[in-house]
């Protein structure tokens, strides 16, 4: 049985040597200088990106439906000016428009958007606040206070 054991150990030794092949050598105290990694020339600015593709199609606006605003919602800019006078602010952005009317009681912001592609913008949303401190007020009350 002793010879068999020696034969088995001798047969396994080359296999064990192959497993130990990846071991690192033990340092002898003298160290080699650190190796600098190779740095490739990289651009200093990031490569340009493509802008996001434009969204296709028209997105219709939500139309406010609040009691007391029936005379405002759906009106165009001319109708609103007949009702409230010259706006203090008239802002256009793309196909949208914001008209602002002011009085002692309140400030009324009316937002106009086209309801379909190419249509004239009409009032779809109204916001109102006090002139004195900017706190929200009842929209219908502000419309009534500023109307002619």
Description:
With 148 residues, the protein is an alpha+beta fold. The protein has a domain at 77-146: Nuclear Transport Factor 2, Chain: A, CATH 3.10.450. It contains three helices and four strands; from the N terminus they run H-H-E-E-E-E-H. It has helices at 2-19, 77-84, 139-146; strands at 89-93, 96-102, 106-113, 122-130. Strands 1-2-3-4 form a four-stranded antiparallel sheet, covered by helices on one side. Strand 2 (96-102) and strand 3 (106-113) form a beta hairpin. The radius of gyration is 39 Å and the shape is extended. The model has no long low-confidence stretch (mean pLDDT 80).
How much of the sequence is in beta strands?
A: 15-25%
CATH topology of the domain at 77-146: Nuclear Transport Factor 2, Chain: A
- Second rung of CATH, namely the architecture of the domain at 77-146: Roll
Give the % helix.
10-25%
Count of discrete alpha- or pi-helical segments spanning 4 or more residues? 3
For the CA atoms, what is the radius of gyration?
39 Å
Please give the order of strands in the largest beta sheet.
1-2-3-4
Which word captures the global form?
A: extended
Element layout with pairings:
Blueprint: H1 2-19, H2 77-84, E1 89-93, E2 96-102, E3 106-113, E4 122-130, H3 139-146
Antiparallel strand pairs: 1-2, 2-3, 3-4
Which descriptors apply to this entry?
20% strand; 4-stranded antiparallel sheet; 148 residues; Nuclear Transport Factor 2, Chain: A; alpha+beta
């Amino acid at each position: 049985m002793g010879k068999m054991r020696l034969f088995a150990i001798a047969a396994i030794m080359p296999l064990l040597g192959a497993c130990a092949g990846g071991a690192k050598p033990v340092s002898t105290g003298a160290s080699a200088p650190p190796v600098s990694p190779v740095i490739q020339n990289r651009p200093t600015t990031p490569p340009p990106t493509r802008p996001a593709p434009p969204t296709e199609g028209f997105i219709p606006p939500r139309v406010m439906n609040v009691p007391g605003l029936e005379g405002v919602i759906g009106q165009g800019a001319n109708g609103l000016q007949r009702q409230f006078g010259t706006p203090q602010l008239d802002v256009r952005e793309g196909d949208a428009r914001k008209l602002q009317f002011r009085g002692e009681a309140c400030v009324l912001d009316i937002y106009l958007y086209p309801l379909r592609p190419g249509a004239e913008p009409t009032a779809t949303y109204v916001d109102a606040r006090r002139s004195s401190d900017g706190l929200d007020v009842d929209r219908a009350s502000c419309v009534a206070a500023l109307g002619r």
